[in-house]
Structures are given as structure tokens and as C-alpha cells.
């Protein structure tokens, strides 16, 4: 078990990056307030986010150009899932899907057939907590390790289990002590191109934790597969990779190895961030973009922001030169073209068609698998919910 140690606070100089406000004229048909928008003391009420006519920020003049992928065929892989959250592919092209509220995992074949894979013990589902992210080790063909991030009785934690003969084995602890709450539990885990495990955490609605370098809340973590601290982490003896986050929900890498993360805002701005080691992303001092010189010198601005009605971003995936971002309250899939460290103009797809969208993952065949999240207590349940959809790109 990894024990986090105190680290020395540093004064960080962040490089401001190109900023784009994604606003659209169409409503996502949001299905009720998102608890992640609960007002802070003295804050405004949920749903008080600016309208599309609010003052916006101009994109950097040098935005990516060229061919932009669009969505072709959309088909159902499977249906009747219970609060799906984590989704991770096995080498054979099938996927493991986690149920947030039941703690169960099912294997879903490319043909849509479902097979019970077992239940993760110790999951305590409450509010936004439960069985959240899944990740399959890059060494799976040798060791059969599958990783899970979940809310336990006293914390959020990551465990790993052998997946053999169609069943999950007994979990072993990778890391504990990630703060838990009814909201803002983070939960996304993914292996990077460096073979290390990354995790996005939330500040459990205790805002100061995001800036507290002694806490694992409101951070992106980077660790060895066994939970120990890898060489090259920015803080001594710490798995903290970046901080100043509110509630990180998506992690993905582009073809150049850049790490991109989606993040819930409070009442005004949701974010897509380009993650650099050791950098401070500003929460709770800054939500969205700050033009103040003092803030720009200390915090990293997001590369793209959205009004909260248009996003409430969750999972992200990189495919065909773009980050694809699933949106819950916004009930749409965003495509954000990427060129180097710059983001182009976002475009929305599937607006309101399938309701709340939770997780998007690139499959082995290049398609995107996308989960809905209408049975999570905040959506309008539709026929077959919840679904896994397959999207072809062209």
C-alpha cells in the first residue's frame, strides 16, 4: 500500500495556452441538475451558468486545420446496463464494463453478448461514488491484471485483480487514501504510453484539497502498476502529477504523447486541459480562464472551456486527430481537433439523441465505444438504457 508523504510547496510558473470557448445555439435537453454543480457557500445555484450570449473568449489565431473526422454509422453494441461507468478493452477486442451502483463487471463482446465477470468487493455506492474507472494493464497478455477505481467505506482506492477464465479474482491494493465524498470522487484511470498508471481524482467538494499537496484529492496521479512512485514524478516521494483540479473525469493521450484531461467546473466553465507535470490548474482560485497577470503566472489555463449546460464532461478518447469528449448534462459528444499543444474549434454530435453520455473509448478496430448514463438518477431513462454505442469515424 502506498502512503502519501508531504511534499514541499513550490511556486510554479505556468505557460498560458490557447483558449477556446465552445458555445452552441442548441440545448442538450439536460435532464435535471447535476450534483457536481452544487453551489459553494456564497455561490450561485446550479444551472446559473452563462448563456450562449455571454461574453466569450476568442481562440488563438493559430488553431489546427485540415481534415476533420466526423461520425458515420452509429449502432448499438449492447443495452440494459446498470449505471455503466468504466469501460476498458481486452486484447481480443471485447471490453469490460463496470456498474457504478452494483459493483459488478460484465464482459461485452464485439457482437454485444454479455458475460458476468464478477463483482468487486468493498464497493460503497453513494451519490457519485461506487465502482468507477477500469483499466487493463498493457502487460495483460502476460499477467492478466485488470485495475479498478472505486469508492470504499472510508476512501477512494485503486485495486488490481486477475481476470482469468472469465472471472475476476481477489483484489490486491494498489493505492488507498484518495478522499471520498458524495460528489467529486474523480474515478478515471488509464495507462499512459509510458506504461504507468494515471488516475483523475476529485476534491470531494472540499475545495481547499485541490491546492493541498499533502492530499490526493483534486489531482492527477501517476504511479507504477504496483502503486509506488515512479522516477520522474514532479514532487519527491509523491504520486501527484498535477494539482489544482476540481473533479477530473477523463484522461487520454494523443499521438505525440500529450496528456489531455476533462474536468467539471462549478457553475460557469467546464474544461479541457493539457496536462504538464507539476503544474497547478488553478481550482478553486480560478474556474475556467483567468486573464489576471498574477493568475496567468501561477496557474495553467485550460485549452478549451464550455458553459456547464453544454458539457459536464466525463470520459475522453483520442482518435483521428481529435479529442472526443462525452458530456453528461450537455447530452452530446464533442470533437476537439488537436494539433501539437493547440486545440481547434469544437463541434458537437449526437446532441440530445441518446441522453447523458459518460464514457468514450477507442476500440481495437478504430471505432469509438460510447456509454450512456441515463440510469444514474439524473437522466431520463429511454428504451434499452443504458447502452453501449459503436461509432464509426470518417
TrEMBL record:
SUPFAM superfamilies: Soluble quinoprotein glucose dehydrogenase (SSF50952)
Pfam families per UniProt: GSDH
Keyword flag Lyase: no
Protein origin, superkingdom: Bacteria
Keywords assigned: Signal
Positions of region (Disordered): 28-69
Composition bias, Low complexity: 33-67
Annotated ranges, domain Glucose/Sorbosone dehydrogenase: 81-378
Signal peptide positions on this chain: 1-28
Protein name from the UniProt record: Oxidoreductase
Organism: Wenjunlia tyrosinilytica
Lineage, opening ranks: Bacteria, Bacillati, Actinomycetota, Actinomycetes, Kitasatosporales
